[in-house]
Design a protein that fits this description.
Layout lengths: L1 H43 L14 E13 L9 E22 L2 E21 L10 E24 L6 E20 L6 E23 L2 E20 L5 E27 L5
Antiparallel strand pairs: 1-2, 1-8, 2-3, 3-4, 4-5, 5-6, 6-7, 7-8
């Protein structure tokens, strides 16, 4: 009986020793895994998000504006055009408001106004030495386009230096745009006019760069690269009767040089570090 009791006690002690040794082996294995994967984690995590370009709690007020014109004095740029009498003007103003809800992340609202107008008194197309082709011309043409836009956008910033002076901007924009256009030709009794009502909805992607030119003022440059779009155009004659309609939608990614936006942004905050 005494031997039997001693055997039971020895078996119990051996089981307790084995059970105590198994977690140690598992923890040791886990330690080996941590030791083995720790250098890999250091290589993957490059700590890009530690370079802060925009701080949480900042309020941003910005404005982008552009103006362009083309008139008869610029006709030397068009070698095939003669006897030019025209004037084209384009004005765009886009103020916006944004709030940084996290470091290097912000959401905002943008409003915009665009006006394009122009008149062509006369343009002759000189084909020069091209055989069997007569010169062509246009006269008494006009265009006026006025549009308003509203958009909701989200921006991600990546600071390129530890001081947070230069950064990359990745912007996603949901935009709605509406306006009217008028085109006319001729004069007097020969005048003809066509009016249209335009509507557009777009999901745009606008990457860019930002540089602080002053501690609280940032110069930004963004360019549109396309995205999802939907366009609706309704055309009317001089009496107001609808003469045509066109709907178009799709997905298009293309670097749009005409959609380069240059602006200034004022960053308002209380305790930027």
């Amino acid at each position: 009986m005494r031997r039997f009791i001693l055997m039971i006690v020895a078996a119990a002690l051996s089981l307790s020793v084995v059970s105590a040794a198994e977690p140690t082996a598992i923890s040791a294995d886990k330690g080996e895994q941590k030791t083995r994967f720790l250098p890999m984690r250091q290589r993957i995590n490059r700590n890009i998000d530690q370079n802060k370009f925009v701080y949480k709690g900042e309020v941003m007020l910005g404005l982008t504006a552009s103006y362009g014109s083309l008139n008869s004095q610029d006709s030397d740029l068009m070698l095939l055009l003669d006897n030019i009498n025209m004037g084209l003007r384009s004005t765009t103003v886009k103020p916006f408001f944004a709030y940084s809800y996290r470091d290097n992340m912000a959401v905002g609202l943008r409003f915009g106004y665009e006006n394009i107008s122009g008149e062509v008194g006369n343009i002759d197309l000189n084909l020069g030495l091209i055989a069997d082709m007569e010169n062509m011309g246009l006269s008494n043409l006009g265009l006026r386009n006025e549009s308003f836009m509203w958009s909701l956008f989200h921006r991600n910033y990546i600071g390129l230096d530890r001081r947070g002076i230069v950064g990359v901007i990745m912007e996603t924009e949901l935009m709605v745009k509406s306006g009217t256009s008028t085109m006319w030709s001729g004069s007097g009794d020969d005048l003809s006019r066509s009016d249209s009502r335009n509507f557009a909805a777009r999901l745009n992607f606008n990457p860019g760069m930002g540089v602080y030119v002053f501690p609280q003022v940032c110069l930004t440059v963004t360019v549109g690269v396309g995205g999802l779009y939907y366009n609706n155009i309704r055309q009317f004659d001089m009496s107001g009767v609808e003469t045509g309609r066109r709907d178009r939608s799709g997905l298009k990614f293309k670097l749009n040089i005409a959609d380069i936006q240059i602006g200034l942004v004022a960053h308002l905050w209380n305790n930027k570090k």
